[in-house]
Request: fold
Amino acid sequence: MTARAAIAIGCSAGGLVALERLLPGLDPRLPVPIVVCCHTGSPDVGLLVELLGRHSVLPVKEAHEREAADPGTVHVAPSGYHLLVESNFHFSLSVDAKVAYARPSIDVLFETAAAAWRERLVAVLMTGANSDGAQGLKAVRDTGGYAIVQDPSTAEADVMPRAGLDIAGADACLPLDAIAAALNRLCMS
Amino acid sequence: MDVEDIEIQLFVQAMRLRHGHDFSEYAPASLKRRVQQLVRTHESGTVVRLVDRILHEEGFLPRVIEGLSVPVSEMFRDPAVFRSLRDKVLPVLASYPEINIWQAGCAHGQEVYSLAILLEEAGLYERSRIYATDFNDAALAVAAEGIYATREARVWSRNYIEAGGSHSFSDYYSARYDFIKLDQRLRRNVTFLNHNLVTDEVFCEAHLILCRNVLIYFSNALQDRTLGLFRDSLVRGGFLCLGTRENIDFSPAASCFTHIDGALRIYQLGGSGAKALKK
Ligand SMILES: C[S@@+](CC[C@H](N)C(=O)[O-])C[C@H]1O[C@@H](n2cnc3c(N)ncnc32)[C@H](O)[C@@H]1O
Reply:
């Protein structure tokens, strides 16, 4: 089995609560970076980072441009910028037009992360009230990455996971509470 | 290597060899997305077909530049930055008999008018000159006109207030149907110029340089070169304002700038090392 090298997570409406439940379940020895794009609508992602930090077993920080995606760290996309992953696994930012009405856009993160990590990426699309992330998830699967979609019936808002399933399908469709264990399994073997 | 990545390299080569536009030091992930967008806009199917037009089609270049430039902006974007410029930077600039400001990568001019309003309200506009530059001529033309969609004015009006504006934002524009037109008196001391940060040199002596959300598209090496250009353009003690999420930790040239307001990316040329570097 391919050793997975990175996790990318996308969510929107209901995302904070979903992440607060997912992050505590991750293995503290997880040897891969976790990159999160969560639409918050707030001009500063600082509060989200702080709230997630209280629940997470791994350190949570805002993703900085030009810095490397560190293993064992949760990097959160800043508000108002698209977060991109370069082929050397460093982050870059852009203020290009919104994609699927969103900036940061999950599509942009997933597509660039897929181009960088290819079949070693695991992408997770969770609760949300719009269809951002579905195209990105397709790019992840097209390059051989592993796609997890939150079971829409366990999502606070099911539009996003449904769009993901419609457009990209998934390697696993899991209830929220089973996602962390799946990630540990995929990335620790 | 992925076929599309090969095509992107051909695209970059064609732009450089055929037109002297060098995108080889742009951050690859964004550049790739923009080229893909160009392929869609021009319905050319593949990047290589786009390259064909770049090489052979008279008059195609400006449209490619437009596609690669993505001049997205806002008035008083990040209001706290403009408040800090008003409170901390303008009072220092007030001590100069003439004030030169360089706004690099001015896009559609939203920040040019924002600056002009700040200077006007501080009573400094008469002795100021703003050089507003970009490498996209079409964007410069839009900037000079100062016409924007009305739906944006609501956000901008809020930004203006949060930035500490002392009037009503609507004092500065006239509204017509779906558009607002900024008061053209605001550009009486503005010079719009085509300037390419990759290839062009110092052209003025500036007291303040604003270059927000442009360097984020540059590699570390090009970011460093550009910061060197800014250093050489600024008077000693001059100010530099970058986008709020820019990271200059990897640039040797950045060492001659000191923080005025670190979180807001406002710097001053000075501190140790600065004297030796500046003639
Ligand atoms: C995202 S806009 C920034 C607008 C504004 N400063 C802001 O932050 O709202 C980036 C601008 O930089 C310009 N730009 C990109 N590369 C450039 C270069 N090499 N020389 C001059 N301008 C450039 C683009 O044309 C575009 O208008």
Notes: Residues A 95; B 69, 71-74, 77, 105, 107, 111, 134-136, 139, 196-198, 212-214, 243 surround S-adenosylmethionine (CB under 6 Å). The mean pLDDT of chain A is 96.
